Amino acid sequence: MTEAGRLDARGPAGVTDGGATAGAGGLDARLVVDRGDFALDVTLGARPGEVLALLGPNGAGKTTALRALAGLTPLTGGHLRLDGETLEEPAIRRRTAPEGRPVGVIFQDYLLFPHLTALENVAFGPRCHGMPRAAARTLAAELLDRMGLADHAGTKPRRLSGGQAQRVALARALATGPRLLLLDEPLAALDARARLDVRAELRRHLAAFEAVAVLVTHDPLDATVLADRLVVIENGRPVQQGTPAEVARRPRTDYVARLVGLNLYQGEAAGHTVRLAPGLGLATTETLQGAAFVAFPPSAVTLHRERPDRGENAWPAEVAGMESHGDRIRVALTGAGPAAGLPLAADLTAVAVAELTLALGDAVWVSVGLTETHAYPA
Ligand SMILES: Nc1ncnc2c1ncn2[C@@H]1O[C@H](COP(=O)(O)OP(=O)(O)OP(=O)(O)O)[C@@H](O)[C@H]1O
């Protein structure tokens, strides 16, 4: 990325602070929101230039966290500091109003002003911050140009495609020089085809953004493509964080395992075996002691009609469901015997399913390839 290609997030006039806040730069937050029936307590930290994705199931608290960062939902505890400046801290009664925060927000449906042109939409924020009209329009034109929308400056939102509207929303959010950019499900409003292009484009823009960006998504692919680091939230609490690769390789909850498409079990490791239940051990290539996770892809599972000769990593199970999964068939199984109740996903070719004459409720044996299991400390 060349310097010239970088989006200048340092202020409408492009004025920098000369690195005066270096060291304290970025996001430092503990977001506590207690609503009685729902409690959020999430600690977030990010350096300038980092993109964080908040990922989690419905109702986990992602939007509440984003709204708290924007100042739209007051904190009941914790703190929010940006580049060393405290924007909110209930314990010392400090709270900067949403409009006073150096924060840009892109809402799910973009919320562009329908009666204003793309240029006027982008110029709106700087005008509200007191920038003279001509300067605000020049800045807006420059931002639209960088977004490849110079030809659409005079277009009203209803005549823009989903991807174009999103770029206008991004330009509008950047126009006030935010130190924190918030994106709520940035690709949710787009159809599958547009999503592909817009995802790649948004990735370029976010990679060029110099301050902190936080996005909320349900979609692991969006999170993986767009973010440097994922924070998975469940029931108002962070349950796992790391780079997309770390999270995908070492899931720590069932939700994350499903998201990244792995089977995940927890047990007690002793050397090369992780004991999952009495009489049920899973051999792994890693050597571990104590509480451990073991994960493997559905493609590592083989189904048999009879107990396999090599009894290692094999257990009886029942076919609980089958569905197409790309060019494979995903078979859902429920363990029996020592594996009673253990859920398992297996990916088989259509030929394998036909040869086994598999049907719902069938009793089978499953075996898992030793070299495809991955064990790590819990
Ligand atoms: N304005 C509100 N007042 C009271 N409760 C709310 C409000 N908004 C959300 N909630 C509740 O707070 C919890 C967290 O919701 P939130 O919208 O933050 O989750 P989410 O992770 O963004 O979910 P989704 O992916 O479904 O958007 C839920 O139990 C929800 O019902």
Automatic annotation (TrEMBL):
Q: Name one Pfam family in it.
A: TOBE
Keywords for this protein? ATP-binding, Nucleotide-binding, Transport
* GO terms, molecular function: ATP binding; ATP hydrolysis activity
Q: Which residues cross the membrane?
A: none
Location of the ABC transporter domain: 24-260
The segment annotated Disordered runs over 1-20
Entry-linked SMART domains:
AAA
SUPFAM superfamilies cross-referenced by the UniProt entry = MOP-like, P-loop containing nucleoside triphosphate hydrolases
**Record's protein name:** Molybdate transport system ATP-binding protein
